UniProtKB/TrEMBL annotation:
One Gene Ontology MF term: UDP-N-acetylmuramate-L-alanine ligase activity
The protein's name in its UniProt record: UDP-N-acetylmuramate--alanine ligase
Sorted UniProt keywords: ATP-binding, Cell cycle, Cell division, Cell shape, Cell wall biogenesis/degradation, Ligase, Nucleotide-binding, Peptidoglycan synthesis, Transferase
Catalytic residue list: H147 (proton donor/acceptor), C163 (nucleophile)
Residue span, L,D-TPase catalytic domain: 35-187
CDD domains per UniProt: YkuD_like
Single biological process term from Gene Ontology: peptidoglycan biosynthetic process
């Protein structure tokens, strides 16, 4: 398995930053020592710093239960330590130790559930009273070591019972250069600790949102106690979704603060939940910890062997494809995503979350709100870099952070603007430099065929962008250790993602498609795919949010003008406004005016009722009616209304 190794300069910069942050801790040296070993808990790596420069780094595994110095907590004690003793000089790799003495046994790779102490031991002597030294929290008394492990497959994520595990070859390499008395810094995570998931009920305010609902379901499926509230439920809306939550054991409370009871361990909120929401106020009054959605996701990403999929376009599709490949190959993965998977909906689930039995977790990692920088996945996937919610240089900075925090392998597309993140990474795409490359690509109205390293693939979703999405999923699964040959059948059965070029139905030879497209590249991909399916495209677009629409205004003008042909039509609805303090100083009609001025047949739709009638009168056999837009959950029902009007003639 390939591992991403950041440049030595990046490792040095990170280690020195952790040293500076820990200088205020008791036991810290006055100046940077000549030799320093830094365990980076956030990234599950360790670096040896000699004279201010990283000379070596390795993946490690700290405690599954997190960081803490309490006796019998099974946590890894944080802070400053010294190497007390070196034990195991000259012992063969896999030598088994008990109570710091060799037992005469040797582990040679056989399956063993016990947490064996192997090969070499570096005992740690804590330097911080009340944290890692003293009654009830003495790291040396608790036998806190750095040691080799028989669970090498777990190295790179929290999995130990308190010690710092390393691969057996790695711990030997460290042992050979370490000296008794060397300083060790176990740097706790930068991200905020959240309450123990077993400590009580987690209450999600805004439970019905796609990101919140996925987290709540996953936590409940993993045995956690979960509840939530949502204004839509209070208004009697989305009764079927509410019933699905309740079937999973997720209690639904009114959004009046009543969900914040004595058994509530934490309130989970998204950026959309304002402090005026009664649940928020009740949590502050009661002193209940308030945890952001991204902090919960970051916790799950760090706890499991996670595959985090990010990029401007294609995240939901690649997340779904990766999940279905892993699932189809018997890996029993979990998934947390923003798009609904019809395969899960067919099993009676909402569709954006599932908890499997293995430690593999596939997540959609959104860059739009900046939370991407919180995640430290085992496998990071960067799909593309385009202009959407933020300027590309801002997103590129987040991708650089993800690259540095990826614990095993980074998977990167072969677009030229992703080259800065590709050092040591596995690349996918259509160019000759791609490690996972598609050749002999053939397109049809219903999908595409291609080959990767002589293995034939067929995907049931059309468009070149979906070929690229499939390559990303194949690369992610290859990085997870799965053989290429077994991926073709699960990928051929991929059932798509809700609102990602999802056919609502056909009537009188007219197809109605629902799509989440909302930026230039996604809109272009949707229109190009529609042109594979029909003679003419009747495009419908509803911009979402005044800020995002203002930001992408000229992108919309260029894209619709260039992608729609002379026979195609565009109808644009008014900007979707979900509330808040946005300045509403323009209309979608202003954008339509510029598109029409460029020569495209474009019209502003004053209402949905007007538009339904216009489409029913305009559409003819061979047309594709393409409904596009994001954030508004009613768009799918609107697409169905259009289909019904066409059926009525």
């Amino acid at each position: 398995m390939r591992r991403v190794t950041p440049p030595a300069s990046a490792i040095t910069t990170r280690a020195l930053a952790l040293f500076e942050a820990a200088r205020a801790r008791p036991g810290a040296p006055a100046d940077l020592p000549g030799r320093l070993f830094v365990v980076d808990v956030e990234r599950q790596t360790a670096a040896l710093i000699v004279d201010g420069v990283a000379v070596a780094s390795w993946p490690v595994s700290t405690a599954l239960k997190g960081i803490g110095g309490e006796e019998n907590s099974f946590k890894t004690p944080p802070g400053w330590h010294r190497i007390d003793r070196k034990i195991g000089t000259g012992a063969a790799a896999g030598t088994v130790f008990s109570s710091r003495e060799p037992t005469g046994e040797r582990w040679q790779g056989e399956t063993c559930e016990s947490d064996l102490i192997l090969t070499r031991i570096l005992t740690l002597d804590g330097l911080e009273d009340g944290v890692n030294r003293g009654p009830g929290c003495d790291s040396r008394e608790r036998y806190i070591y750095i040691h080799g492990s028989n669970h090498e497959e777990h190295i790179g994520r929290p999995a130990s019972c308190g010690c710092v595990r390393m691969g057996n070859a790695d711990v030997t390499a460290l042992f050979d250069v370490a000296q008794e008395g060397d300083l060790i810094l176990i740097a706790p995570p930068e991200s905020r600790d959240i309450p123990e998931l077993s400590s009580g009920r987690f209450h999600y305010a805004g439970l019905g949102g796609s990101g919140m609902s996925a987290l709540a379901q996953f936590q409940a499926m993993k045995g956690g106690r979960v509840s939530g509230s949502d204004r839509a439920f209070d208004h009697g809306e989305r009764a079927a979704v509410r019933a699905q939550f309740e079937a999973l054991g997720i209690g639904v409370f009114p959004q009046d603060g009543s969900g914040i009871g004595e058994d509530c361990a934490a309130l989970v909120v998204s950026t959309a939940v304002e402090e005026t929401v009664p649940d928020f106020a009740a949590a502050k009054t009661r002193g209940v910890p308030i945890v952001h959605r991204s902090e919960m996701l970051a916790h799950f990403v760090g706890t499991y062997r996670s595959i985090a999929v990010t990029g401007t376009s294609g995240k939901s599709t690649v997340t779904g494809m990766t999940f279905e490949i892993l699932r189809g190959m018997g890996a029993d993965p979990s998934v947390i995503t923003g798009g609904d998977l019809p395969a899960l909906q067919a099993e009676g689930l909402i569709g954006n979350a599932f908890a499997g039995a293995s430690d593999l977790l596939v997540v959609e990692a959104d860059e739009s709100d900046g939370s991407l920088v919180r995640y430290a996945p085992s496998i990071g996937v960067i799909l593309n870099l385009q202009r959407d919610h933020k300027e590309m240089e801002d997103v590129a900075a987040m991708f650089a952070t993800l690259r540095a925090r990826t614990r095993e392998t980074l998977v990167v597309g072969d677009d030229a603007n992703l080259d800065p993140f590709a050092g040591g990474a596995m690349r996918f795409g259509l160019s000759e430099r791609a490690d996972i490359r598609a050749v002999n690509v053939q397109h049809s109205a219903d999908g595409a065929r291609f080959e990767v390293e002589g293995v034939a693939f067929a995907i049931p979703v059309p468009g070149l962008h979906n070929v690229t999405n499939a390559l990303a999923a194949i690369a992610a699964c290859r990085a997870a250790g799965l053989p290429l040959e077994g991926m073709a059948d699960p990928l051929a059965g991929f059932s798509g993602i809700g609102r990602r070029f999802q056919t609502i139905g056909c009537a009188s030879g007219i197809e109605v498609v629902d799509d989440f497209a909302h930026n230039a590249e996604k809109i272009a991909a949707a229109i190009r795919t529609a042109k594979l399916r029909g003679r003419r495209v009747l495009g419908i677009y509803q911009p979402h949010g005044y800020g995002p629409t203002r930001f992408l205004w000229q992108d919309f003008v260029r894209t619709f003008s260039s992608e729609l042909s002379a026979d195609d039509r565009l109808f644009m609805l008014e900007v979707f406004y979900a509330g808040g303090t946005a300045t509403r100083d323009f209309s979608a009609a202003d954008i339509v005016g510029e598109i029409a001025a460029a020569g495209t047949q474009a019209a502003f739709a004053p209402s949905r009722e007007w538009l339904i009638e216009a489409i029913a009168n305009e559409a003819r056999e061979g047309d594709v009616v393409l409904v596009m837009g994001a954030r508004d959950p009613s768009l799918t029902a609107f697409a169905r209304d259009i289909l019904s009007a066409i059926e009525r003639g």
